[in-house]
Amino acid sequence: EAKQRGKNGYFVYCDHQLQQMRTNMQLLNDLQKAIQQKELFLLYQPIVQLPSKRIAAVEVLVRWHHPSLGAIPPSTFIPLAEESGLIVQLGEWVLKEACRQAKQWQKEGLTPIRVCVNISARELQDRKYAKRVEMILQEANLEAKWLELEITERMMVYNEPTITRNLNLLKQLGVRIAVDDFGTGCSSLSYLKQLDIDTLKIDRSFIQECPHSYYEKAIVDSVLSLVQHLNMNVIAEGIEDEKQFDYLAKNGCSEGQGYFFSPPLSAEQLKQMLQNMNEPRHV
Ligand code: C2E
Ligand code: MG
Ligand code: MG
Ligand code: MG
């Protein structure tokens, strides 16, 4: 009933759908400008070693401060950018800025950490993607081993040759590859070995119900066992309390991320945290 064909053959949309489309068109238009006009900025969420809580990495999370609408969450504008193809430009900006910042922290004498950057399928479908990453690393003068690109299982489902080729080239450069939201994408596991994946990120939905729920705990246990046998790194996403932290730390989970340790921070706040971490605790 929401969408009907009128007499003349045109689709008739209800007010709500039209409103939604207009909003999306407007937002997309604004997003195009936002990239040029510096309305986008990055936050960095610490990823810590377990059980020591020392920062080993940061996940780079993009933010958009819209001039009239205020903060727009990535869950709203990333899908729009993906559908329109604008994600390619946006992703390139994020990657450049993240690499520049990582180098900047190193220059400031802080302990080097990995920077983990989310990428979309559309970016990996570009034949030149790996080459562009290589150039961005060169420009920033950042060693490839500090960069970890987060892909999702969903990207692996169709086994596209361009995507596989790009991932292989990236591995050859020394870039690390992580699988984000692991356990939610229903793909085969054979790509883990084929692509020599470095890190699995256990999805927050499993961590949140762990260890009190039998089902989620079983899944977490299985992933931790898989990771140990395949000698991969693992990050538990969305750790929010002490119980989750204790369970994961005691069961061999190497790294964790979540509000229990820290929310996403500005570059300046992250620098402070790294500095505090490097100071000797007992005088
Ligand atoms: P993600 O890659 O799974 O990122 C983790 C999300 O969980 C982030 O949301 C983070 O703020 C949130 N989070 C972290 N710790 C906790 C916790 O303890 N509890 C809860 N409830 N949430 C936590 P955010 O920043 O809103 O990003 C949402 C998604 O947007 C990301 O999910 C990622 O898929 C996408 N995204 C963000 N930045 C980029 C980007 O630069 N490029 C692309 N392609 N996607 C991005
Ligand atoms: Mg991620
Ligand atoms: Mg994630
Ligand atoms: Mg997730």
From TrEMBL:
Residues 24-278 form the EAL domain. This is PAS domain S-box-containing protein/diguanylate cyclase (GGDEF)-like protein. It comes from Thermolongibacillus altinsuensis. The chain holds residues 567 to 849 of 849 of the full protein.
